[in-house]
Amino acid sequence: MGMKPRLRYMDYHCDQTLDVFSEILLALKPTHVLPEVRQDIRQNHVTCRVRLRAPTGHRIFLHFLWLRISADQQHHDRVKIYDPSPVKTLLTPKSGLYGKLDRSMDIQDTDGSKITDYRSSQNEIIVEYLGNPTAEHAGFKILLTVFKSKWKKKLERE
What is the pLDDT of residues 23-43, one digit of tens each? Predict the structure, then answer.
C-alpha cells in the first residue's frame, strides 16, 4: 500500500516555495480554527501565494479534491493558479475559482464545468488565495502530484 500524501496548510507557507517530490495535499486552513460566520472583512483576511516546485525535468499536476469559496461578489474570495515559466501565465479564469465543488471532476463533466485539473509547463506552479475563509466557505483541498516531463526526454534526444 502507498503512503498517504502529506497535508500542508497553505497559509503557513505564504510567499514561500514548497518543494514537492512526489505528492502533497494543499489546503487553505485547518477547519477547526475557522470562524462560523464572516467577521469584518478586514479580520482574518488572507492573501496568500505559494510557489510549488518539483525537481528539474518534472512537472506538477494539480487536482481539486474539493472547493468551498464564497461566490458572494461582496467578499471577492478567489483562488487563482499560475504557471510561472517561462512567463507568469494565469491558468484559471481571470475572476479566479469560487463556488462549491464537493467531488472530483468526472470524465462526463462538460467544457463548461468550472473546475478542471491543471498542469505546469515546467517544474513550478503558483497557487494564490485571496479571501476570508469561514467554516462554511473553508477554501479548498488540492492534490499536487509530480510527474516526469516528456519535454525533457525530447530535449535529451535532440
Answer: 999 988 766 665 555 555 555
Name the architecture of domain 6-104+114-148.
Sandwich (2.60)
Helix (H, G, I), strand (E, B) or coil at 157: helix
Is the separation of the CB atoms in 79 and 97 below 8 Å?
yes
Helix (H, G, I), strand (E, B) or coil at 31: helix
Instruction: Retrieve residue 57's grid coordinates.
Output: 525535468
**CA dihedral sign, ordered 47, 101, 127, 2:** positive
pTM > 0.85 = no
| Helix or strand holding residue 30 (H, E) | none
- Residue type for position 15: D
Residue type, 140: F
Judge contact between 99 and 114, C-beta under 8 A.
yes
What does the domain layout of the chain look like in residue ranges? 6-104+114-148
Helices and strands in the chain, H and E counts? 1, 11
